[in-house]
Amino acid sequence: MKLKDHDLQQINRDYLAGLAPDKLVEVSLKLLEDLKEARDSLNQTAQNSSRPSGSFAPWEGGAVASSPAAMEVAEPEPAEEAPPRHKKHPPLTDGPAGAGEPPEAKKPGKQKGAPGHGRKVELAVTDIKLHRAEVCAACGNKLGAEEPFEARLGLYVLDVELGTPGLQVSHVKHLYGASVCSCGHRSCTEPGRCEPEPGWRVELTEWHLVGPMLVSLLVCLSLRQRLSRPRIQEFLQDWLGISLSVGVINQCITEGGRAAEPVEAQLIAEIQQAELLHADETGWKEHGRLVWLWVLVAPGVTLFLIGQRSWDVIADVLDGFAGWLMSDGYLSYRQYARRLRCLAHLIRKARGLAESVEQEAQQFGEKTLAYLVLFIEAIYRARAGPGSRPKEELAEPLAELKAWCQQHRDSPHSKTRQLAREFLNDWEAIWTVLDYPDLPLTNNIAERALRHWVIARKISYGTRTPQGSRALTLLASVIETCRQRQISPWPYLAEVIAARRKGNPAPPLPAAVS
């Protein structure tokens, strides 16, 4: 850059108007050169620079594909129409009729005569578990272990147990069959199964190679440790001697999300009873489509949702909520009356203007920042000494700040204009904290809740299907809520999966550790 920040701060209309023509041209050329350099920097993409693709925000994904460089590729001229040919066969040649025609397309799936591939389970059986009927289905008599049992079907289940020390791998053979009652009736048992539920294509059944605790481990490796499916597969094989396909791993993670779905109702009920709720949202990708990941955080509860950036996504959750809602300046939050504004966002914006090279923006930012510091100091004093009323004590500075924002609400500088209007539009929400000094000043709780998942988004590029998005938010809600309550989420998640596979209700969330 030819001109530095302190140079630009001195250049304005009056300065340019007072220059001689030759000097004006010289200054203009320097400005033009700097402008071109800045424009080139702004137009950098992963395709024309060393900037990594992960540095783009989700909503900027289309900018790479639609960059001018990508548009310069000339379209090929249309070729003469040729007869259709099979992609797996060479071009047709002259010869007897039918000699060069390709065979019929193969049917999908395993072909007749092709070698098959079975499930690779080489672990020794560690236990055999008989599933007997507890009562006779006909007469209602209780059936004990002494009653004759006829095994009719069985399945092998791989699972892990939290041993001392470390994980213990189990390979259990489960036998289901008929127990013979004294009345002569045979009462049969079979693996449990959850009935189909709307929105889910994955089954929830005990007829599964992977046990509940192993599913919980897969969820931990994927969502908490941010490992890809192939890396999870590698870990299981190298450290536990368990061989699972990538498809089975993905199915198990989605199954865990479906199992946790009933827990969401408990989370929503507790949020609606809370006195304070933090809300935030960030961009998310669903198979390249931009959606938004929302988070709602109350004491002891965290709820994630994926949908559009619309109030409708959280409207049902907040329908029965009557407490304070802490949020940023997103317009949709203004539909809620008892709202608080994050002062950290306003401080950052004011500091950015104070560091601007535009003189008007710099003055507005510095003065606004000084007012914010004054008000925050008063709030901390009120917290330390009960009985003070900071809003009454700061009535004059508040009026001055409001007049200052009114003065700049139509500023030609866009950032200055936007911040001035943001103060005026959210005035009551911003300064409610002066009436209630014990309320929070920032939305850091919600932002910290999103941080882990923002990193996961950069690694995984989001989810691929609505079902995958739904599973992710349900599992994330359970994991973060358990962490808030200082309990391990993994045994509880395994308990939920085991109950739901039997077709039973999900157990309630454990209470917080006191």
- Which sheet architecture does the biggest sheet show? 5 strands, mixed
Structural class: alpha/beta
Number of strands: 9
What pattern of helices and strands is seen along the backbone? HHHHHEEEEHHHHEEEHEEHHHHHHHHH
Extract low-pLDDT stretches: 62-99
Strand order of the largest sheet: 7-6-5-8-9
Roughly what percent helix? 40-55%
What's the tally of helices?
Answer: 19
User: Could you tell me the mean pLDDT?
Assistant: 87
Report the C-alpha radius of gyration, rounded.
32 Å
Q: How far apart are the termini? A: 58 Å
Q: What is the 3D shape?
A: elongated
* Proportion of strand residues: 5-15%
What's the arrangement of secondary structure elements?
Layout lengths: L4 H4 L4 H5 L3 H22 L18 H5 L2 H4 L55 E5 L17 E14 L4 E14 L5 E3 L23 H13 L4 H12 L5 H14 L3 H10 L3 E11 L2 E10 L2 E7 L4 H7 L5 E4 L11 E3 L1 H12 L4 H26 L5 H4 L1 H14 L5 H12 L1 H9 L8 H17 L5 H19 L4 H13 L13
Parallel strand pairs: 1-3, 5-8, 8-9
Antiparallel strand pairs: 2-3, 3-4, 5-6, 6-7
Helix pairs in contact: 6-8, 6-19, 8-18, 11-12, 14-15
Walk me through the structure.
- With 514 residues, this protein is of the alpha/beta class.
- Among the domains are: 125-190, no CATH class; 343-441, no CATH class.
- The protein has helices at residues 5-8, 13-17, 21-42, 61-65, 68-71, 212-224, 229-240, 246-259, 263-272, 312-318, 343-354, 359-384, 390-393, 395-408, 414-425, 427-435, 444-460, 466-484, 489-501, and strands at residues 127-131, 149-162, 167-180, 186-188, 276-286, 289-298, 301-307, 324-327, 339-341.
- The strands form two sheets. A five-stranded mixed beta sheet has the order 7-6-5-8-9.
- α6 crosses α8, α6 packs across α19 and α8 (246-259) crosses α18.
- The longest helix has 26 residues, at 359-384.
- The two termini are 58 Å apart.
- Mean pLDDT is 87; it is low at 62-99.
